[in-house]
Amino acid sequence: MAPVPVVDKGGIVDIILPVAAATGGSIMHEYALALDIMNTLREKYPEDIGRLTSISLTVGQFSGVVTDSLDFCLHMVLKDQKLPEVKVVIEEEEAMAECACGDRYPLTDLLQPCPRCGAYDRHLLSGKGIMIRSIEVEKEEISHGQ
User: 99 has which bridge partners?
Assistant: First the structure.
């Protein structure tokens, strides 16, 4: 999925950026993801990183990420980068599957068959990734030369 930035004049930047393929669930994994999130933001929005006030993430239900660990690691990285006051919001994305029969349904367990036909021939439509949904930055004070 390509990043789609939409800048709101109020200082909110709505974006959808894939962070990384998530597998596993150790604290080291979440720390690497936290670094990747900050590197992605620094690369895409270098002029705004120092004015960052909030980061909103979506973590898929089957991403393999422990959200409490990611939150902890992201706060560690933010503190190391002199941004300890940045608010972090992490929401879980429900997994949706599509069966070969065409039925789309919420997936609550990886061993759950299709409710319509009972088959396991499906693919995940959502719930397996990590996305930076939005960032919020402080407004710039603009002097009008008075």
Answer: 122
